[in-house]
Write a structure and sequence with these properties.
Elements: H1 4-16, H2 42-58, H3 65-70, H4 81-95
Helix pairs in contact: 1-2
Length: about 100
């Protein structure tokens, strides 16, 4: 199975191919996703979450990220690339 960092990098690249230059994400921990100052609008964030869910599903991991987002991301796990990556890594450990 690929590492979460690799999946995140691929997902950001795939999303960036669909975004204008102004809205492209950087694969750095402090890049904001679902917080004030994010380059993503709501559609961009939904697209990104969908890409991540699909990539994880392809690895045999089922996770309801849309559900977390629809709940308002109460724990802030999707606030930045770094917090989201850490959350996904912890979820992977829980599944082992």
């Amino acid at each position: 199975m690929r590492k979460i960092n690799q999946l995140m990098e691929e997902a950001i690249e795939e999303l960036n191919n669909q975004q204008s230059n102004y809205n492209k994400l950087e694969n750095v921990p402090v890049e904001k996703l679902n917080s004030e100052g994010s380059k993503l609008d709501s559609l961009g964030l939904l697209t990104f979450i969908n890409i991540i869910e699909e990539k994880m599903s392809n690895e045999g991991i089922k996770i309801d990220l849309m559900g977390i987002l629809m709940e308002g991301d109460p724990n802030g796990v999707m606030a930045t690339v770094g917090s989201f990556t850490k959350f996904l890594e912890e979820k992977m450990k829980d599944l082992k």
